[in-house]
Design goal:
The chain contains 19 helices and 18 strands. The chain is α/β, with parallel strands linked by helices. The chain folds into three domains: 3-140, Rossmann fold (3-Layer(aba) Sandwich); 149-257, Rossmann fold, CATH 3.40.50.2000; 296-543, Spore Coat Polysaccharide Biosynthesis Protein SpsA, Chain A (Alpha-Beta Complex). The longest helix has 23 residues, at 257-279. The chain is elongated. The mean pLDDT is 91.
């Protein structure tokens, strides 16, 4: 018999709640076919994850799971049964436009991404998860779970006499809207009774069935709302707001009373079958349409890269969204023999393209060739000696996707003077490239630093990199883009490792004078961007004659 480890913060033995009631139905149903081992997430150990051998893990509520345990689970086969927006730090998408939160408000991204399936409870719930984390593994149950006994109890109380004209519910969690619901009643001079929410299911249904009109105005987005569905099954009039996930389901307004009970019963059986098919690896699970991910063009200028090329290719092809990228490796007449290694990777990754130039046009000439070759919506320069976190490109692109008025996004990077290190293990000591939030004044520094991602369309209004520069052409390009109306945005967090190559163009002491003169030229050309106070501050520094 197959083993399933079912992890959740709480089960019915611990407390009564919507998630716990739903989990009990799922566990009891699966127990007919499988050996289901229930484990509270705060008591789960690495030994629990390893000792059962080849088994499936189903994760329900997991607020108490440690990062260590979550990491161990990602190496197993597992599903997530999602209840309440645990991909958000505040567990509520309602403050955000179209339920889309900024990257700083997201969490557990990799845990959701690496799950085989993430099962949600309503269309709104599923789309919110998919659109925030840009996932392709989301399925929508479109229903919560009740036992046959619970549905039978509801059915037996459908025709109860309505003795309570108006009611609100007393919730421990104030985001469930008790205060707002009471305030609505007071404002509209509605007499009401307050119902307790901590009753056993049978006692609750017997009281709830006597309500004629239920006022329920939660302040957070309910991923589903069993309570609202129970109200409709009991033919209770419902005054609510848009914060109920079940409202996004087409059946919600179609059925009520016994017709809805019949529908719910059939839907639950259907969902249990879907779950079992998933466990049995049957590939007929209906997933949401994957997020229509944009194409990203990665532009790499290669010159004397034999020392770094394999490490670079390992890193870049391991990016979480590399399948949505094209890697343009432009050989600037390198005297070294990098191509056999590149060819090896090209056989594995058809989205790698290699171009060998007849002469070296300089770094910015190469980048311009890449920009013109690029077929992606977004561009980034991928230097051979820089290393990115496994999701760096995704994190930055996600920022641009969620902020259509932003043309370029950037983040922090660790700094090292030792080549071929890894993002996870390096000698930076936590030192980062000095990055600040975007402002026109801050552009005096080489903002946005290394590894930015920008819209290809930015070049339509601002032009290409100025090939007369050898060192400061990227700085000049970003300033020119800002002059033409582009806005930039900083993504918080460290997502890269910048190698301060002593032999590189920007760091070699032999080139320091040439570099200064180019920076000087940029400073005087773009004083209108910095503002007069910044110009005054740096005037003396950039007035030197070398």
């Amino acid at each position: 018999m197959k083993k399933i480890v079912y992890l959740s913060d709480f089960f019915l033995k611990d407390l009564i709640g919507g998630a716990e009631l739903a989990d009990s139905v799922i566990v009891n149903s699966l127990n007919k076919t499988y050996e289901v081992i229930c484990k509270n997430s705060n008591k789960a150990t690495l030994e629990d994850i390893e000792k059962h051998g080849n088994f499936l893990i189903i994760v329900s509520n997991f607020n108490f799971l440690t990062e260590e345990i979550k990491s161990a689970i990602t190496k197993k086969r597992y599903f997530i049964i999602e209840h309440d927006h645990k991909f958000l730090k505040e567990r509520d998408p309602s403050p955000f436009n179209n339920d889309i939160a900024p990257p700083s408000s997201l969490k557990n991204l990799q845990f959701y991404r690496k799950a085989e399936y993430v099962f949600c409870q309503s269309k709104r719930h599923a789309e919110c998860l998919r659109n925030n984390l840009l996932l392709s593994n989301v399925s929508n149950f479109g229903m919560s779970f009740w036992t046959k006994q619970q549905l039978s109890l509801i059915r037996n109380n459908v025709n109860s006499e309505k003795k309570i004209q108006n009611a609100v519910m007393s919730f421990f969690n104030q985001k469930k809207g008790t205060k707002r619901s009471i305030g609505y009643c007071i404002k509209n001079k509605i007499e009401y009774e307050v119902l307790p929410s901590n009753l056993e299911f049978e006692s609750f249904i017997q009281i709830f069935s006597k309500v004629d009109k239920f006022i329920f105005l939660p302040t957070l987005v309910e991923s589903f709302s069993r309570l609202a569905v129970e109200a409709r099954m009991l033919s209770i009039s419902l005054i609510t707001n848009k914060n109920l996930g079940c409202l996004s389901e087409p059946w919600f307004n179609k059925y009520k009373g016994e017709d809805l009970i019949d529908f719910v019963e059939n839907k639950i059986e259907e969902n249990i079958s879907v779950l079992i098919d998933s466990i049995e690896n049957k590939k007929n699970i209906l997933l949401l349409e994957p997020y229509n991910y944009p194409k990203i063009s990665l532009i790499t200028s290669m010159f004397k890269g034999e020392k770094y090329i394999r490490k670079f290719l390992d890193n870049i092809t391991s990016q979480t969204i590399f399948q949505h990228c094209e890697l343009l490796i432009i050989d600037a007449v390198s005297p070294e023999d990098e191509f056999p290694i590149i060819e090896e990777y090209m056989r594995r990754f058809p989205n790698i393209k290699y171009v060998k130039l007849e002469e070296d046009p300089g770094i910015y000439g190469v980048w311009n060739i890449g920009v013109k070759m690029a077929t992606g919506q977004y561009l980034t320069n991928t230097n051979l000696d820089d290393i990115r976190s496994f999701d760096q490109i995704e994190v930055i692109v996600n920022c641009l996707e969620k902020n259509p008025h932003i043309d370029l996004a950037y983040g922090e990077s660790y700094v090292t003077n030792i080549g071929n290190e890894t993002f996870e293990i390096n000698s930076s000591g936590g030192k980062t490239y000095p990055i600040v939030d975007f402002s026109r004044e801050a552009m005096i520094k080489c903002l946005p630093g290394c590894m930015p991602v920008w819209r290809k369309s930015m070049h339509d209004k601002a032009g290409y990199f100025d090939e007369s520069f050898r060192y400061a052409g990227d700085h000049e390009m970003w300033l020119r883009a800002v002059r033409h109306g582009s806005e930039f945005k900083r993504v918080k967090g460290v997502h890269g490792l910048y190698y301060m190559n002593p032999d590189g163009l920007s760091t070699s002491e032999d080139n320091s004078v040439k570099k200064y003169k180019e920076e000087q030229r940029v400073f005087w050309e773009y004083g209108d961007i910095y503002g007069q106070s910044v110009v005054n501050q740096y005037r003396d520094y950039f007035s030197r004659i070398l």
